[in-house]
Design brief:
The chain is of the alpha+beta class and 100 residues long. It is built from 2 helices and 4 strands; from the N terminus they run βαββαβ. The protein starts with a strand and ends with a strand.
Length: 100
């Protein structure tokens, strides 16, 4: 019996309208809040902190079954594609929570 699944989605975002780190932070803060509120995901900016037009975010979610994790990651990626910034790359992984 499985202990659940962890879905992990890492995305590269490009903010063509950001003219400063302050402008970028506005986009990143909004993206993180939306992902947390809409999908119940934990989200962190994990790279490109010093670049004002790029960011790498990683989000994670815990679900009861594999399909639920895949669906949640699909929806989160679709949400990001529909925003005013560009989703440049997305990598995903779903693992059983009891894997070592």
């Amino acid at each position: 019996m499985s202990s659940g699944f962890v879905g992990i989605l890492t995305v590269e975002l490009h903010f063509p309208d950001a003219g400063s780190l302050k402008g970028k932070r506005k986009f990143v803060k909004s993206a993180k809040a939306q992902l947390q509120n809409r999908f119940g995901a934990s989200v962190a900016e994990v790279d490109h902190h010093e670049l004002w037009q790029r960011s790498r975010l990683t989000l994670s979610c815990v679900t009861r079954d594999y399909r639920e994790a895949v669906q949640l990651l699909d929806e989160a990626e679709r949400f990001l594609v529909g925003q005013e910034y560009e989703l440049v790359r997305a990598e995903r992984r779903v693992v059983a929570a009891d894997e070592h």
